[in-house]
TrEMBL record:
Name by which UniProt lists this protein: ABC transporter ATP-binding protein
Main location: membrane
TM segment ranges: 20-40, 61-85, 148-179, 245-270, 276-296
Signal peptide: none
PROSITE patterns: ABC_TM1F, ABC_TRANSPORTER_2
ABC transporter domain boundaries: 341-576
Topology of this chain in the membrane: Multi-pass membrane protein
Keywords annotated in UniProt: ATP-binding, Membrane, Nucleotide-binding, Transmembrane, Transmembrane helix
GO MF annotations, alphabetized: ATP binding
Native source species: Paenibacillus mendelii
Subcellular location: Cell membrane
Domain ABC transmembrane type-1, residue spans: 25-307
Length: 584
C-alpha cells in the first residue's frame, strides 16, 4: 500500500514469494475466512439489539449471544493459524534472501569490497533483511487483511444503507489516497538515515579491527572525533526523519478523527431526516466504522516502518543486482593438469579514476615452471596475482591459460585450480581442523596429518594443545603470524592446486622455520606452475624464471640463470647489491 514497488523490486519479491505459493495461497484463504468472520459476527449484535428492543424471549437472545461468542473464538483460532503460517513462510523467505546476499557478497570483486566496509555489509545483510522479516511477518499480513477488510466493510455498509455506503466509500478512498501520498514524504530521508547508519557500523567495525594500531600510534582521539562526527551526522538525519514521520503520523491521526466525525454526522443527519434506520443498524454501522478505523490507524502507526522496509528493499535489490566488474560468462573448464600462463599486453587500473597499476605487461610462463616475481613496494606484484586469480579483470589485454583467455573459463572451477598463500591470512573461530580443511567434511584427519608431515611441520603440530581439535580464536588472535602462515600452507597443500601463488607467503615465518619448509615448498612446486612474490632474494633464487616489475611495467623477464649471469640485468645488480636497488 505505502510501499510502491518498482518493477525490479516487484520481481525481486515475486521470485522469493513464488517458491512458497502453496503456503501463501493457504494463508490467503485464512485471511478471507478471518475477514468474513469479522464482517459477519457484528450482524449478531445488530440482531441482538433489535430483538431485545422488540422484546423477544431471553432464550432467543441467549442463542444469539452464544453464536456471537462462538464466532469470536473461531476468529481467534484462525488468527493463530495465520500467524503461524506467516512466521514460517517469513523465516524461510528471509533466510533465503540472507543466503543469496551472503553468496553475492562472497563473490563480489575487489572494487566492490574497496567501497564497502565489512561492517556496512553486516548492516545490509542482517539489518536490512531483519526489516524485511518484520515487514513480512507483521505488516504484510496486516496490509493485505486491512485492505481487504476495508473493501468488505464498504461493500457491507452499501448493502445496509446506500447513502452511508457512498459516504464511507468517499472517506475510505480519500483516506487511502492521503496516506499513500504521505507515505512517500519520509522515504528519502529514511534511506539517507539507513545509509548513514550502515556507514557508522562500518566505521566501528574497521576501527575495532584496527584497535592495536590505533593504540600503538595514539590515534584514539582522532578515532573518537571521527566517530563523534559520524554520530552527529546520524543524529541530524535521524531528526529529519523523525520530523517527517511525525508530520505523517499526526496528519494521519487528524484524518482518521475526521473520518469518524463525518460518518457520525452523516448518520445523525440521516436519522433526523429519515428514521428508516433502527438502533441496531445505527450501532452496526458505527461498529463497522470502528473496525474500519483499526486498519487505517495501524497503517498510520506503521508508516515509518514501511518506509524503512521500502528503503531496505531498494538496498537489497541494489546488492543483488550488482554485476561486478569480473566477467562471469565463461563456461569452459581447465582440463589439462599442466598449465601455462601468458600475460598478453595486460593493463589494469582498480577504478576508472585511479592511476594505472599495470601497464602493457607481457610475459609467458611455460607449464609447470616457477617464476619469482620481484619489484619495489607498490610496483604491482600483488595486483598481478589478483588478476591471475580473477579477483578483477584487466581493462586491456588478456591473461591466457593454456592459450585460452582466462575469462572464457567458468569462474568457480577456474579459481578452484589456483591456490594462494598471501600476506594476510584469514582464520576463523573454530578448530584447527576447520581452519585447515575450510569446512570440507570429506577430508580425513589422516590426510591432514600426512600433509603436515610432508611439510615438515610435525614439531609445530605436536605443540598444539589438542591436535586438530585445538581451538583457534577469531582472526587467529591466539596464534602468531608465523603459525597462521603455516596453517595457510597446509590449507593450500591440501587443495592440490594446479597453479600456486605464494604472495610473500614466508614473510612472517622465522628463518629457521622458513628453511624447514623450504623443502616442502619445493615438493609442492613440483609439477605445478608457480608464481612466488617475494621481498627476499633467497626465496626466489631457485625459480626457473624471474620477472621484475617496475612501476607496473615489466623491467625484465627471463630465465633466472640467464638474468643472474647477465651483469647488466637488474636482477644480477640486485644480487650484487643485496637487493637494495629494488626495495629502496
Ligand atoms: N584494492 C585496491 N584499490 C585501489 N588501489 C589499489 C588496491 N590495491 C592496490 N592498489 C594500488 O595498486 C598499486 C600496486 O599495489 P600492489 O599491492 O599490487 O603492489 P605490490 O607490488 O604488491 O606492493 P607490496 O610489495 O608492498 O605488497 C599501489 O599503488 C596501490 O596503491
Amino acid at each position: 500500500m505505502f510501499i510502491r514497488l518498482d518493477r525490479a523490486q516487484f520481481k525481486f519479491m515475486y521470485g522469493y514469494l513464488y517458491t512458497h505459493r502453496a503456503q501463501l495461497l493457504l494463508l490467503l484463504l485464512f485471511i478471507f475466512g478471518n475477514i468474513a468472520l469479522q464482517i459477519y459476527s457484528p450482524l449478531y449484535i445488530q440482531r441482538f439489539l433489535d430483538s431485545a428492543q422488540a422484546g423477544k424471549a431471553a432464550a432467543e437472545l441467549l442463542t444469539i449471544a452464544l453464536f456471537f461468542l462462538g464466532l469470536t473464538v473461531i476468529r481467534q483460532l484462525v488468527t493463530i493459524v495465520m500467524q503461524f503460517i506467516t512466521s514460517d513462510v517469513t523465516w524461510k523467505i528471509t533466510n533465503k534472501v540472507r543466503l543469496d546476499l551472503m553468496r553475492q557478497c562472497l563473490n563480489y570483486d575487489l572494487s566492490f569490497h574497496s567501497r564497502h566496509t565489512p561492517g556496512e555489509m553486516v548492516e545490509r545483510i542482517d539489518g536490512d533483511v531483519g526489516k524485511l522479516n518484520n515487514f513480512l511477518s507483521a505488516f504484510a499480513l496486516k496490509m493485505i487483511s486491512n485492505n481487504l477488510l476495508i473493501v468488505c466493510i464498504v461493500v457491507v455498509i452499501f448493502y445496509i444503507n446506500l447513502y452511508m455506503g457512498f459516504v464511507v466509500l468517499a472517506l475510505s478512498i480519500t483516506g487511502l489516497v492521503v496516506l499513500t501520498r504521505m507515505g512517500k514524504f519520509g522515504s528519502k530521508t529514511i534511506r539517507n538515515y539507513m545509509a548513514d547508519s550502515a556507514d557508522t557500523v562500518g566505521f566501528i567495525d574497521e576501527r575495532i579491527a584496527g584497535r592495536e594500531d590505533i593504540r600503538a600510534f595514539k590515534a584514539e582521539t582522532y578515532t573518537l572525533h571521527s566517530y563523534y562526527a559520524k554520530l552527529k551526522s546520524l543524529y541530524r538525519t535521524r531528526k529529519q526523519t523523525g520530523f517527517r514521520i511525525g508530520i505523517v503520523i499526526n496528519t494521519g491521526e487528524v484524518m482518521l478523527a475526521l473520518v469518524l466525525a463525518v460518518t457520525l454526522l452523516s448518520m445523525g443527519l440521516l436519522h433526523l431526516h429519515n428514521k428508516a434506520m433502527s438502533i441496531g443498524t445505527i450501532f452496526l454501522i458505527y461498529y463497522y466504522i470502528t473496525i474500519l478505523l483499526i486498519p487505517l490507524k495501524s497503517m498510520v502507526a506503521e508508516i515509518s516502518d514501511l518506509q524503512y522496509v521500502h528503503a531496505a528493499l531498494l538496498r537489497m535489490n541494489e546488492l543483488l543486482d550488482y554485476t561486478g566488474k569480473v566477467d562471469t560468462s565463461g563456461r569452459a573448464h581447465l582440463m589439462d593438469p599442466a598449465i601455462s600462463i601468458q600475460f598478453d599486453h595486460v593493463s589494469f587500473r582498480y577504478d576508472d579514476d585511479q592511476h594505472q597499476v599495470l601497464r602493457n605487461v607481457s610475459f609467458q610462463i611455460p607449464a609447470n615452471k616457477t617464476v619469482g616475481l620481484l619489484g619495489k613496494t607498490g610496483s604491482g606484484k600483488s595486483t598481478l596475482a589478483r588478476l591471475l586469480f580473477r579477483m578483477c579483470d584487466p581493462q586491456e589485454g588478456a591473461i591466457r591459460i593454456n592459450g585460452t583467455d582466462s575469462r572464457e573459463y567458468a569462474l568457480d572451477s577456474f579459481r578452484a585450480s589456483i591456490g594462494i598463500v598471501s600476506q594476510s591470512i584469514e582464520l576463523f573461530a573454530g578448530s584447527l581442523r576447520d581452519n585447515i580443511t575450510m569446512y570440507k567434511d570429506h577430508i580425513t584427519d589422516e590426510q591432514i596429518v600426512q600433509i603436515i608431515d610432508r611439510l615438515g611441520l610435525c614439531d609445530w603440530f605436536r605443540s598444539m594443545a589438542d591436535g586438530l581439535d585445538t581451538r583457534i580464536e577469531r582472526d587467529g588472535s591466539n596464534l602468531s603470524g608465523g603459525e597462521a602462515q603455516l596453517i595457510a600452507f597446509t590449507r593450500v597443500f591440501l587443495c592440490n592446486p594446479r597453479i600456486l601463488i605464494l604472495d610473500e607467503a614466508t614473510s612472517r615465518i622465522d628463518p629457521i622455520t622458513e628453511r624447514r619448509i623450504e623443502k616442502a615448498i619445493a615438493v609442492l612446486m613440483k609439477n605445478r606452475t608457480c608464481i612466488i612474490i617475494a621481498h627476499r632474494l633467497s626465496t626466489v633464487r631457485n625459480t626457473d624464471y624471474t620477472l621484475v616489475l617496475q612501476e607496473g611495467s615489466v623491467l625484465e623477464f627471463d630465465e633466472t640463470g640467464c638474468l643472474a649471469h647477465n651483469p647488466s640485468s637488474a636482477y644480477s645488480r640486485m644480487i650484487r647489491e643485496g637487493g637494495s636497488e629494488l626495495y629502496a
